[in-house]
From TrEMBL:
This is PCI domain-containing protein. Keywords: Signalosome. Pfam families: CSN7_HB_subdom. Residues 173-211 are annotated as: Disordered. It comes from Sphagnurus paluster. One of its GO terms (cellular component) is COP9 signalosome. Residues 188-211 have a biased composition (Basic and acidic residues). It comes from the Eukaryota.
Amino acid sequence: MAKSLKGAAAAKLIQDATSAPGVFVFSELLELPNIQELGKSEQHQRFLSLLQLFSYKTYQDYVALDMPTIRELEDLIIDAIYLDILRGKLDEKEQQLEVEYTMGRDLEPGKLEELLAALQNWAETTTAVLGTLEAKIQQISRETTAAKQMEQEQESLLQANLKEVFEKQKDKSLGGGMMNRRGMHMGIPDRDPMHMDVDEPPEGLKNKNRK
């Protein structure tokens, strides 16, 4: 139907399309030759501008239709959120909208190269960030491996030192026992604590005592 409409009928179609709930993409309508012809008419030029505004322009371009109150702007944003045109959070304290997602829009003529450059810059930045993160992860992995190896070496050294000390103590204990046994075999008799040696009396005293 849009292909056959011209003049006032085409302008009315633009009004209907831009005010229709659930209609957010207008590129097919905007590209029609008879719609573009409206730009040559002083009477209908503003309808083509309206269609361009809804297609790819911004709020700053919408200043001529500006909202009279903040409340009306908030209502518009809320409607857009409910229609899933955008997703975000209203920050009343900072008086701003934190946008998390927006629906794709038509691309303004002549903006393709600018968009591709922005995407290329984003891709290069992302690649650089990922490269930096990968290098950091590898560095942390190397440091963790080196620290674990050092810990194992220190544990091995500690065990070796403990074993050496234990062997020395063992040798010392065995050496003392052997010396005690050697002293007994060298003629040092075991003495009975209840036994006392008594010297034999002289020969004369023996006979005297007998008498």
